Amino acid sequence: MAKIVYSMLTSLDGYIAGQDGDIGLPVPEAELHQHFNDMMKQTSVVLTGRRMYEMMRFWDSPDRETGATEVERDFARAWRETPKIVFSTTLRQVGHNARLVHDDALTAVRSLKAEVDGLVILGGADLAASLARAALIDEYRLYMHPVVLGGGKPYFQSGLSLTLKPLGAESLAQGVTLLRYAPAN
């Protein structure tokens, strides 16, 4: 059975993007990037909404294989090799190694959870809120940067009420603290 993990970089005040929609968080440097590379290599499937998918399409470019640093090239390879399911009512097509779901995300995720083994990474606050309300998320990972954005897109959607139990904390490069939680019930 799949383990669905909602995993995002956040500011100390809990935002995944600033008020203007820009990420506003420091770009991961090599050591922190390697942490995300390792997680992507362990991932069976990525679940994402349209906005997150469009942002991550950057990694689909073959240019990512020849430019930048080795750690970035490594992530690009892992991203392209990992199957993705994109939930969107507006997209008409998706790229390499991705499948588009237009309707009933909850049914699709319930089926996936029963059919797939291993780690399923979930990205995107709106999709995460929908899955959280349906009790489909097994773990929450908040990668907290020592930055305050002062507003924007929150990690937890407004109005979402959850009781969580701590699974642990870890200090990472660039002053990032990984906080891990699971649903309490």
UniProtKB/TrEMBL annotation:
InterPro entries: DHFR-like_dom_sf (IPR024072), RibDG_C (IPR002734), Riboflavin_Biosynth_HTPR (IPR050765). It holds the Pfam family RibD_C. Residues 3-177 form the Bacterial bifunctional deaminase-reductase C-terminal domain. PANTHER family: 2,5-DIAMINO-6-RIBOSYLAMINO-4(3H)-PYRIMIDINONE 5'-PHOSPHATE REDUCTASE, DIHYDROFOLATE REDUCTASE FAMILY PROTEIN (AFU_ORTHOLOGUE AFUA_8G06820). This is Dihydrofolate reductase family protein. It comes from Mesorhizobium cantuariense.
